Amino acid sequence: MNILEKKEKNKYSIDYHLVDGSGAGVTIEPIAFLAVTNGTIKLLPVNHDSSLDKLVDYVPDLLNKVGDAISTMKDKNKCIEKLKNKIEKEVEKEKEKEEEEQEEQEDYEDEED
C-alpha cells in the first residue's frame, strides 16, 4: 500500500486514538425539594441532621398557623361583638315597647276610674 492509498483509506475512517478518554460516574442526590402551596414557597430538606434542624424548619409554619388562628379568633370576636350589640338593641327596643304598653294600660285604667 502506498502513501496515497493510505491517505485515501484514512480519509473516511475515524481515528479512534484521538477519541481516547475515560468515563466518570456521576450520581445526583436530592438535598431538598421546593414545595409551592397556596402561593407560598417552602424549602423542604430531605435529611435533617438533628431535631433542632427540624424545629428550625417548622418554626415559620408554626408562626403562620398561630397568626392565622389569632386573626380567625379576632374575626369571630368581632362577629360576636356585632351580634351582641344587635341583640342588646333589640332587647332595648322590646323594653321600650313594653314600657309604652304598660303606660298605655295604666292610662286606660286611669280613664276607667
Descriptive notes:
This protein is mainly alpha-helical and 113 residues long. The protein has helices spanning 3-11, 51-112; strands spanning 32-37, 40-45. It has a domain at 52-113. It is built from 2 helices and 2 strands. The mean pLDDT is 78.
Keywords:
2 strands; 113 residues; two-stranded antiparallel ribbon; mainly alpha; rod-shaped
* Strand fraction: 5-15%
Distance between the termini: 152 Å
Shape: rod-shaped
How many runs of DSSP E, i.e. beta strands? 2
In terms of structural class, how would the helical and strand content be classed? Answer: mainly alpha
| Number of contiguous helices | 2
Average pLDDT works out at: 78
Low-confidence stretches: none
Tell me the Rg in angstroms: 43 Å
Order of helices and strands: HEEH
What characterizes the major β-sheet? 2 strands, antiparallel
Q: Please give the order of strands in the largest beta sheet.
A: 1-2
Helix % is: 55-70%
Q: How would you briefly describe this protein structure?
A:
The chain is mostly helical. The chain has two helices and two strands, in the order αββα. It has helices at 3-11, 51-112, and strands at residues 32-37, 40-45.
